[in-house]
């Protein structure tokens, strides 16, 4: 997306503009009954071997600093992000034919942010974070169930469940954001914000052929 950014027909946009625009899209998705997981997004990463990998995760927070998700730090995506701290995100909302594509560098969230989000999770999800050795071979699903039961018993029904050191979050700091609107005859509208670093930073907003 960055490489295909338009060179003409652009205008300067305030730094907050694409984030506010994404907020409007997300609010519309949350109001759409057909969309069960409005925060679901695909994330593409590339490892040391140069091969891309794609999976779905859930957006947990966004603001003008970027887009946040959480994972086991031993997972494939986390390993690949350590090797190559860049990622691409895509949100697709079929009921109203909108995609939002985001490309940018990736940075870890702070311990305080990770602690706060982890504490907000349902108890079962907190236990599950301890039990899952994410992205490693699992001999049988029964073993995972057994590990959950072990950790469940360890923490007790009302005990504190601290965040594991191997579980945290990443923030995708965008360098480009594209809003894609489906149109008849596949003459889709594509608006691309490309970051212009500086003080203050700003965006160049242009358009792409569909």
UniProtKB/TrEMBL annotation:
GO terms for molecular function: FMN binding; pyridoxamine phosphate oxidase activity. Keywords: Flavoprotein, FMN, Oxidoreductase. It comes from the Bacteria. Residues 167-210 form the Pyridoxine 5'-phosphate oxidase dimerisation C-terminal domain. FMN binds at residues 55-60, 70-71, 76-77, 99, 134-135, 180, 190. One of its GO terms (biological process) is pyridoxine biosynthetic process. Its EC number is 1.4.3.5. InterPro entries: Pyridox_Oxase, Pyridox_Oxase_N, Pyridoxamine_oxidase_dimer_C, Split_barrel_FMN-bd. Its cofactor is FMN. Binds 1 FMN per subunit. Residues 31-152 form the Pyridoxamine 5'-phosphate oxidase N-terminal domain. Belongs to the pyridoxamine 5'-phosphate oxidase family. NCBIfam families: pdxH (TIGR00558), PRK05679.1 (NF004231). This is Pyridoxamine 5'-phosphate oxidase.
């Amino acid at each position: 997306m960055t490489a295909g950014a338009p060179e003409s027909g652009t205008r300067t946009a305030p730094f907050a503009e694409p984030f506010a625009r994404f907020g409007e899209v997300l609010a519309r998705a949350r109001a759409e009954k057909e969309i069960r997981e409005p925060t679901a997004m695909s994330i593409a990463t590339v490892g040391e071997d140069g091969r891309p990998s794609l999976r779905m995760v859930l957006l947990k927070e966004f603001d003008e600093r970027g887009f946040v998700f959480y994972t086991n730090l031993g997972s494939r995506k986390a390993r690949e992000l350590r090797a190559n701290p860049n990622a691409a995100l895509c949100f697709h909302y079929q009921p109203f034919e909108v995609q939002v594509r985001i490309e940018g560098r990736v940075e870890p969230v702070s311990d305080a942010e990770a602690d706060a989000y982890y504490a907000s999770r349902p108890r079962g999800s907190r236990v599950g974070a301890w039990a899952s050795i994410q992205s490693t071979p699992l001999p049988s699903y029964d073993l995972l169930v057994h590990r959950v039961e072990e950790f469940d018993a360890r923490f007790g029904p009302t005990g504190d469940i601290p965040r594991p050191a191997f579980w945290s979050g990443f923030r995708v700091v965008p360098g480009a954001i594209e809003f894609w609107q489906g149109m008849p005859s596949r003459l889709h509208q594509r608006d691309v914000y490309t970051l212009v670093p500086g003080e203050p930073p700003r965006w160049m907003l242009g358009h792409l052929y569909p």
